């Protein structure tokens, strides 16, 4: 996963870890949208149906201005306003949907938004929602980045500090948001990016791109709080879900990943002044055909001192995953690190892997690769049963500088 600028997370989670033993769960309140701002709806300044504003669903006519007019009309009203994108294929360029707004806004997406392949149409991202409270996108439509038109221009596999292509849907400084029912498809870069958000629910969403598409992360979040992802299916060319620095209280439940690079925390420590990652809960999920399963990664020559702590992975099934459980404190893509052993400032502590079962596509089903100056502490492997599917090699664990305990774990993996 390549970090895209600083765009990145947030519904409520509380996880309590019992020291050296079982996992205690704090009650998680159900997601409750806040009441609409401004009382009863006022009459907007103009139509909210983009076809009434001149958009044509022919897949060829630029509908950017129609969407922007609908946003302006809705944002300036009060109460709850619904922007309607009806059935059809609507070609649009960059959409900067900025607040603050005096209303709560719902975008009803029943048609398909197609991102133009003309990269000059974008300043940075494609659809960017900024500084808005009480926002939702729902429906059965598709946000199609049309990534195949531009993926060949992605040079990030060759140059780590590469030019970033537009992310599809970005929420910046958004509070109380819901994304439900829609499909995100073939992003040019990331599909959904949350940065500095609070109270975000992603539910029943499909995110899809070919497994070999470059840097097409499904959901990336950073500096965000209270994010819930549930009943969501993600199959992409990079991390299904990536959790960046400064993110806390994340709940991922009942979701599927694959193809892709798994559910990842990090990479951590690349930049100065990164903040801790705390209270991550992944439950009742399936990861199939991915290169990684559950992964935490940080730079050995980290620029920031931060903690990754209080994570619980419980009831996760692996199906032919190359590396099902990974903690890598020596992450170094493209050999950009200073190669200074013992320089890490990232603390990884109090991590529970519980009820993790299924199959590994490589012998190395568990990898706990921690550094000697800040060893991983408080790790737990509980009821872990992963089997290598190949022949002539036994399932194994590779563990370095990892401190904790194994409970009811198959002998080959009980390295703590």
Automatic annotation (TrEMBL):
Active site: 261
Secreted in keyword set: yes
Catalysed reactions, semicolon-separated: [(1->4)-alpha-D-galacturonosyl](n) + H2O = alpha-D-galacturonate + [(1->4)-alpha-D-galacturonosyl](n-1)
InterPro entries reported for this sequence: Glyco_hydro_28, PbH1, Pectin_lyas_fold, Pectin_lyase_fold/virulence
Coiled coil: none
UniProt-recorded Gene Ontology molecular function terms: galacturan 1,4-alpha-galacturonidase activity; polygalacturonase activity
Signal peptide location: 1-26
Keywords: Cell wall, Cell wall biogenesis/degradation, Glycosidase, Hydrolase, Secreted, Signal
GO biological process, alphabetically ordered: carbohydrate metabolic process; cell wall organization
Signal recorded as keyword: yes
Compartments where found: Secreted, Cell wall
EC number: 3.2.1.67
Gene3D superfamilies xref list: Single-stranded right-handed beta-helix, Pectin lyase-like
Entry function: May function in depolymerizing pectin during pollen development, germination, and tube growth. Acts as an exo-polygalacturonase.
PANTHER family reported for this sequence: PTHR31375
Family note: Belongs to the glycosyl hydrolase 28 family.
Protein name: Exopolygalacturonase
Species name: Triticum aestivum
């Amino acid at each position: 996963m390549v970090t895209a600028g600083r765009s990145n997370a947030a519904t409520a989670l509380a996880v309590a870890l019992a020291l050296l033993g079982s996992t205690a769960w704090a009650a998680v309140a159900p997601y409750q949208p806040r009441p609409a701002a401004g009382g009863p709806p006022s009459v907007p300044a103009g139509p909210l149906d983009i076809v009434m504003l001149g958009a044509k669903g022919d897949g060829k006519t630029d509908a950017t201005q129609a969407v922007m007019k609908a946003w302006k009309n809705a944002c300036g009203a009060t109460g709850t306003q619904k922007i309607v994108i009806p059935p059809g294929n609507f070609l649009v360029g960059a959409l900067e949907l900025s607040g603050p707004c005096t209303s709560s806004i719902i975008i009803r997406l029943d048609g398909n938004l197609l991102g133009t392949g003309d990269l000059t149409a974008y300043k940075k991202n494609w659809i960017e929602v900024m500084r808005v409270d009480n926002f939702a996108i729902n429906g059965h439509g598709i946000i199609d980045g049309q990534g195949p038109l531009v993926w060949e221009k992605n040079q990030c596999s060759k140059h780590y500090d590469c030019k970033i292509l537009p992310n599809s849907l970005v929420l910046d400084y958004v509070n109380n948001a819901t994304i439900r029912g829609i499909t995100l498809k073939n992003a040019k870069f990331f599909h959904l990016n949350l940065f500095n958000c609070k109270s975000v629910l992603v539910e029943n969403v499909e995110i899809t791109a070919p497994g070999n598409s470059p840097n097409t992360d499904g959901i990336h979040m950073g500096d965000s709080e209270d994010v819930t992802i549930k009943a969501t299916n993600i199959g992409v060319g990079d991390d299904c879900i990536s959790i960046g620095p400064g993110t806390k209280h994340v709940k991922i439940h009942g979701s599927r990943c694959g193809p892709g690079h798994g559910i990842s925390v990090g990479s951590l420590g690349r930049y100065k002044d990164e903040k801790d990652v705390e209270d991550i809960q992944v439950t009742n999920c399936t990861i199939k055909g991915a290169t990684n399963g559950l992964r935490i990664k940080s730079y050995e020559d980290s620029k920031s001192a931060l903690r990754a702590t209080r994570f619980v992975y419980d009831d996760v099934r692996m199906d032919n995953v190359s590396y099902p459980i990974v903690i890598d404190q020596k992450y170094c893509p493209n050999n950009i690190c200073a190669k200074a052993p013992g320089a890490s400032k990232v603390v990884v502590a109090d991590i529970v892997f519980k009820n993790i079962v299924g199959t590994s596509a490589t012998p190395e089903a568990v990898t706990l690769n921690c550094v000697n100056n800040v060893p991983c502490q408080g790790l737990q492997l509980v009821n872990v049963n992963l089997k290598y599917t190949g022949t002539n090699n036994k399932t194994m664990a590779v563990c370095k500088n990892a401190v904790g305990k194994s409970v009811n774990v198959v002998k080959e993996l009980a390295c703590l």
